[in-house]
Amino acid sequence: MCGIVGYVGPRQATSILIDGLRRMEYRGYDSAGVAVLNGKGIKVQKAEGKLSALVEKIGQETIEGTVGIGHTRWATHGAPTTPNAHPHISGDGRIAIIHNGIVENASSIKKALTQRGHTFASATDTEVLAHLIGEYYQGSLEEAVAAALRDVDGAYGIAVVSADEPDVVVAARKGSPLLVGVGDGEWFVASDASAILEHTRSVVYLDDGEMVVLTRVGYRVRTLEVSRIEKPVNQIEWDLATIERGGYPHFMLKEIFEQPESIENTLRGHLLHEEGSARLSGLNLTDEYLGQMERIIITACGTSWHSALIGEYMLEEMARISVEVEYASEFRYRSPIVDNKTLVIAISQSGETADTLAAIREAKRRGARTVGLVNVVGSTIAREVDGGLYLRAGPEVGVASTKAFTCQVAALALVTLRFARLRHLSVLEGRTFIDALQRIPALIQSILDRAPEIEALAKRCEDATNALYLGRGVNFPVALEGALKLKEISYIHAEGYPAAEMKHGPIALIDENMPVIFIAPKDAVHSKIVSNIEEVKARGGKVIALITEGDTEIEQLADATFPIPETLDLLSPLLTGVPLQLLSYYVAVRRGCNVDQPRNLAKSVTVE
Ligand code: AGP
Fold first, then answer.
1. Distance (Å, rounded) from C-alpha 13 to C-alpha 73?
2. Is residue 303 in contact with ligand 1, taking CB distance under 6 Å?
3. Domain count, the chain
4. 369 near 285, Cβ under 8 Å?
5. Distance from the CA of 557 to the center of ligand 1, in angstroms?
6. Of the candidates 542, 324, 573, the residue with the CA atom closest to the CA atom of residue 443
7. Whole-number percent of the chain with pLDDT over 90
8. Ligand 1 pocket check: which of 304, 376, 606 to mutate, most ligand atoms within 8 Å of Cβ?
């Protein structure tokens, strides 16, 4: 999520903008910039990296002016470089814009503009928007912005200034948050209340399709069509720390609840319903290469290794390709069989995990093609692989990975669909898969709406010293992930196992003090897992089961159940993973653990 702040008032704008951006640093970003109207036009200053780099640049040339906009960028299109940083300017330099979101039809707009003689300095969709507004400008900035936005598909939160209207900031919202700060003789616009809280607690929340015009005498809210609408002024009650977490008590809970949106962002622009396939040009893999590719190795660590295991089930079942999943730390030191017909996929939220990076380098040394499924744009792994797909999950601040996990599974579903349609999957089967994928965000939301039921289940685990997670098939990796979540944030020892394996040892652990959590959707192996539940119950074990809605058989067997909606077997981890994230969260909170920064853990393990 990018950070947006704008100011119109009597005070110097630059320091207000920088302070506002500093308040939004927690959201994660990779470059920053400001545009200030300095009496001679628009002064733009931007820098990649942290705000300190921007402040240093500005320090060398202080910018005078009391109207301006500022931005922190979390790259989705284009690497985190200075040319790609915001603000972006129109062809004549008279318009500057900052943007949070994705202009989905940027390439077609850019093509038309290029044909009309425009040239571009960056790889971003935002610069296209700046040029489009510049083309529409005929003396009214707000009308030029409205006209340009009528041409735009996608999501945006923008703020715009013009050298020809030095006392005005125009902002608009569709899909990305924006609010107006109502000060005492000064007005603000921001993507996040934390950016302006020190100046005012009076805010107007914009809704999708709305714009605001800030001037020296006040603000006016409008829509693309209507020049004025009335909106209530709200008072912010939250303190700063709570605002930074979006009102949630912890980043981890915020990120768990962001999953409907983050998965939509992962899928956005890739699904081709007509063809029953997926467009993944970023993988840089030709159909010819994919036709002669013989096997796939997926390498990762931790939670990313669990999503890799789910990818193995997907790719082998749907694309009929041989897949091996390897811990990156093992792969890098053994002598793996790899050649130019082996595709090595690295999965990493941070894109900086040392073992995964080393594994990719080893794979390349041995002649393999490499792709990365990575969240952080421009990260080392993302830059060193031959191609890739960004998760677009947004910054994941909580050390325990949640939305990145489900976005990795969604990305693997896209890759599976693309490969499968080149081999055996029919267009109708592809469309069925796409329809099921597109229903996932809403199904996750229905699970999140019932979070209090999972909080009640947490009571059954909070005093445990051990826990066992059991699943079959594609939900065996979910058992591993559920166990990892519990142990890493609540410090309860937990193990994940294939349910059938329990008889080969772990069943000796069963007693009334150890919760046994079954991931037991109504899938092809449902009857088998019912038997496993009966085996645990016969030994006095306490069973909590994730079940498919309406499964009365397990409901009568288990001590507690949590029903989840139906979906395709291979997509069920996108649903079964969520209640387990919440369960570990509520248990950790009840045990007074530091949920966002668990002891001994780092968000990115950049050392061996
Ligand atoms: C997940 O909850 C853990 N924080 C950890 O296992 C993590 O998944 C692992 O370190 C891999 O990180 P990456 O995805 O950034 O490479």
1. 19
2. yes
3. 3
4. yes
5. 35
6. 573
7. 83
8. 304
Q: Is 231 tagged catalytic?
A: no
Sign of the alpha-carbon torsion through 579, 581, 583, 586? negative
Mean pLDDT of 513-534: 95
Residue pLDDT, tens place only, 14-48: 999 999 999 888 767 889 999 999 999 999 999 99
What is the rounded average pLDDT for all residues in the chain? Answer: 94
Claim to verify: residue 472 and residue 584 sit in the same structural domain: yes
Bridge partners (DSSP) listed for residue 210? 173, 223
Q: Which whole-number Å values give the CA distances from 39 to 65, 195, 223, 322, 427, in the listed order?
A: 7, 25, 29, 65, 60
Q: For the stretch 532-549, what's the b/e string if a residue is b when 16 or more beta carbons lie within 10 angstroms of its beta carbon?
A: bbebbbeeebbbbbbbbe
Write down the catalytic residue from 2, 301, 407, 593.
2
Q: Is the CB of 597 under 6 A from ligand 1?
A: no
Q: Residue 1 — pLDDT band, cuts 50, 70, 90? A: low
Which structural domain range is residue 481 located in?
A: 450-608
Query: pLDDT digits over 56-104, tens only?
Result: 999 877 799 999 999 999 876 678 889 999 999 999 999 999 998 888 8
Distance from Cα 401 to the centre of ligand 1, integer Å: 6
In sequence order, the 6+-apart residues with CB closer than 8 A to the CB of 52 are none
Q: Has residue 456 got a pLDDT over 90?
A: yes
Centre of ligand 1 to C-alpha 301, Å, is 6
434 and 480 together in one domain? no
Binding site membership of 38 for ligand 1 (Cβ less than 6 Å): no
Q: Active-site residue among 50, 231, 364, 603?
A: 603
The residue whose C-alpha atom lies closest to atom 9 belonging to ligand 1 is: 302
Let me know whether 395 and 510 are in one domain.
Answer: no
The token pair that represents 27 in the structure block: 């959201």
The residue from 423, 448, 473 where one domain ends is 448
- Closest atom, ligand 1, to C-alpha of 605: 10
pLDDT at 25: 82
| Residue finishing a domain among 432, 448, 464 | 448
- Distance from Cα 442 to the centre of ligand 1, integer Å: 26
Pocket test for ligand 1, best of 251, 301, 331, 488 (most atoms within 8 A of CB): 301
309 and 275 inside one domain: yes
Confidence (pLDDT) at 238: 73
Active site (annotated) includes residue 407: no
| Interval between CA 330 and ligand 1 midpoint (Å) | 16
CATH number (domain holding residue 476): 3.40.50.10490
Specify the pLDDT at position 331. Answer: 95
- Indicate which CATH number applies to the domain containing 27: 3.60.20.10
Same domain (yes/no): 230, 252: no
Band (pLDDT 50/70/90 cuts) for residue 607 is low
Domain identity same for 220 and 333: no
pTM above 0.90, yes or no: no
For residues 176 and 280, membership in a common domain is answered with: no
